[in-house]
């Protein structure tokens, strides 16, 4: 290999020397300040600039187009966020108007679908499609547009389990209006409830409404529960046994609203 290279250099040494001399000469000429050389260099730069300009302009336009595209995408994303925030605010206002409760202003209202109802015959345990990812927590109150539904029992990441107030063991502290007498409501059968131990000294009549009292650690005040349908005296003669119907038709529920206190 080295022998071939040596033979090549011997045979081509005039050409090699010429190329070297020309290269050295050009190097020296490029570093001189001779006005002829400078003029040639300037003209050469003009030629190269003229050739390069369209390419540079095309690159600049491409960069500007890419930046504009990125900016348009960012503007679109920001508009989406603004629209989403406005939509959530409008939805909460709409739901509050629908619910009509005086105390919902301090609550975020989260719509939820019932994805499973009842784990056994006669059970009123339901599963909702909202969980910790939606900031739902244990003991958050569940309502519908007609009134109180129940509360959250346990939460997963994307779903939660809840109990409805038509469970046999559930008790709710309520107020009867306009009598403004307080009692404990419990499920009776079907879509009916009873309230025991209301003194006969208070005037309670069918047609009066029942709402949450606000004395509970879970349920806020003024959520509608039902309407009184019957009032009878108990065996002791000093108290009433009051019967009524729930406002919510629990067997027809498909969706509910979760009340989450703002700041939690």
What summary fits the major beta sheet? 6 strands, antiparallel, barrel
Portion in strands? 25-35%
- Strand order in space, largest sheet: 1-2-5-4-3-12
> From N to C, what is the helix and strand string?
HHHEEEEEEEEEEEE
Q: What is the arithmetic mean of pLDDT?
A: 77
**Class by helix and strand content?**
alpha+beta
**Rg computed from alpha carbons, rounded to a whole number of angstroms:** 42 Å
Q: What is the name of the CATH architecture of one domain?
A: Beta Barrel
**Helical content class:** 25-40%
- Total count of strands: 12
Which overall shape is indicated by the principal axes computed on the Cα atoms?
rod-shaped
Q: Span between N and C termini?
A: 83 Å
List segments where confidence is low: pLDDT < 50 over at least 5 consecutive residues: none
State the name of the first-level CATH class of one domain: Mainly Beta
CATH homologous superfamily of one domain, by name?
Rod shape-determining protein MreC, domain 2
Q: Helix tally?
A: 3
Can you tell me the CATH topology of one domain? Thrombin, subunit H
Task: Outline the fold blueprint.
Blueprint: H1 2-11, H2 13-31, H3 35-99, E1 107-117, E2 125-128, E3 141-144, E4 147-155, E5 160-164, E6 171-177, E7 181-189, E8 192-199, E9 209-212, E10 224-233, E11 239-246, E12 255-261
Antiparallel strand pairs: 1-2, 1-12, 2-5, 3-4, 3-12, 4-5, 6-7, 6-9, 7-8, 8-11, 9-10, 10-11
């Amino acid at each position: 290999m080295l022998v071939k290279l040596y033979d090549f250099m011997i045979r081509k040494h005039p050409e090699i020397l010429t190329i070297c001399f020309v290269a050295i000469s050009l190097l020296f000429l490029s570093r001189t300040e001779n006005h002829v050389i400078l003029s040639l260099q300037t003209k050469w730069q003009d030629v190269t600039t003229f050739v390069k300009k369209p390419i540079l302009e095309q690159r600049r336009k491409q960069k500007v187009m890419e930046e504009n595209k990125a900016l348009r995408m960012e503007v679109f994303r920001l508009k989406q966020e603004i629209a989403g925030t406005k939509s959530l605010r409008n939805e909460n206002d709409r739901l509050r108007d629908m619910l009509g409760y005086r105390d919902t202003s301090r609550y975020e209202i989260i719509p939820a679908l019932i994805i499973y109802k009842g784990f056994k015959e006669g059970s009123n345990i339901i599963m909702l499609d909202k969980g910790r990812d939606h900031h739902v927590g244990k003991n958050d109150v569940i309502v519908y547009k007609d009134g109180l539904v129940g509360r959250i029992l346990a939460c997963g990441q994307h779903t939660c389990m809840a109990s409805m107030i038509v469970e046999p063991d559930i008790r709710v502290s309520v107020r009867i209006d306009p009598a403004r007498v307080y009692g404990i409501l419990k499920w009776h059968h079907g879509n009916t409830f009873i309230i025991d131990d209301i003194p006969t000294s208070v005037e309670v009549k069918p047609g009066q409404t029942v709402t949450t009292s606000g004395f509970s650690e879970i349920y806020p005040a003024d959520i509608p529960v039902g309407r009184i349908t019957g009032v009878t005296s108990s065996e002791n003669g000093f108290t009433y046994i009051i019967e009524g119907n729930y406002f919510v038709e629990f067997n027809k529920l498909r969706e509910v609203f979760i009340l989450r206190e703002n700041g939690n």
